[in-house]
Amino acid sequence: MTSELDKPTQRAAFRQVRDSYVNGLTDQDRALAFSKIPSPLAKCLTPGKIVAGYVAKGSEVDPAAILAQAHAMGCDLALPHVTSKSAPMRFLRWSPDDDLVPGAFGLLQPAETAPECKPDIVLVPMLAYDDRLIRLGQGAGHYDRALSVLDHSIAIGLAWSVQFTSVLASDIWDVPLDAVLTEKSWITL
Predict the structure, then answer these.
(1) 142 marked as part of a ligand binding site
(2) Confidence (pLDDT) at 48
(3) pLDDT band at residue 172, thresholds of 50, 70 and 90?
(4) 181: buried, middle or exposed (CB in 10 Å: 19+, 13-18, 0-12)?
């Protein structure tokens, strides 16, 4: 593996690319990006489905508008709950009126007393994605471990278009996404 294909190098490079891109967007562009659910995703959002999102940090894509629209369509919501690098990530029920508490790694998450659930659709943050819909995350493996046991759940990565590369470094435990949504397109294999 060459140095440009190792995960730490790619993480640093794509974090910088994402930050630069988002910093260069106008307020209007930021407000419009990811503000409407694309029709392929809308078809999956039937009442009673559980949609898991996340609270964005920094230049990550913010799924707040998608979650609000899914909730208005009758979907239940969930957010990840993380306690440490080695502990499994759990998905806990959440609604837009619920308070969030500080968690590991500076994450905002539901209180650990919120009911655990198994999401039908998981909106996944990332640093990069490739032609195989492999994603590069922050490196703790929380999403790969969670997705590996969520059979029948649909994993949709949220990324800015500049986070694409043709090939990412990958390991056998990396779980491919079912789709990627960028500010410009809906991508599937």
Answers:
(1) yes
(2) 98
(3) very high
(4) buried
Distance (Å, whole) CA 49 – CA 120? 6
53 marked ligand binding residue: no
pLDDT at 1: 33
> Is 135 assigned to a binding site?
yes
**Annotated domain spans of the chain:** 3-187
Is 4 annotated as contributing to ligand binding? no
Whether 38 and 179 have beta carbons less than 8 Å apart is answered as no
**Which CATH code for domain 3-187?**
3.40.50.10420
- Residue 165's φ and ψ, nearest 5 degrees, are -145, 155
141 in a labelled binding site:
yes
pLDDT digits (tens, 9 = 90+) for 116-133: 999 999 999 999 999 999
Residue 106 annotated in ligand binding:
no
The answer on whether 30 is annotated among ligand-binding residues is no
- Statement: residue 3 has pLDDT above 60: no
Q: Which residues of 158-179 are buried (b: 16+ CB within 10 A; e: fewer)?
A: bbbebbbbeebbeeeebbbbbb
C-alpha span between 113 and 116 (Å, rounded): 9
Q: Could you give the C-alpha distances from 122 to 13, 42, 45, 144, 158, in angstroms and in order?
A: 25, 14, 12, 12, 10
∠49-54-60 over CA atoms, to 5°? 135
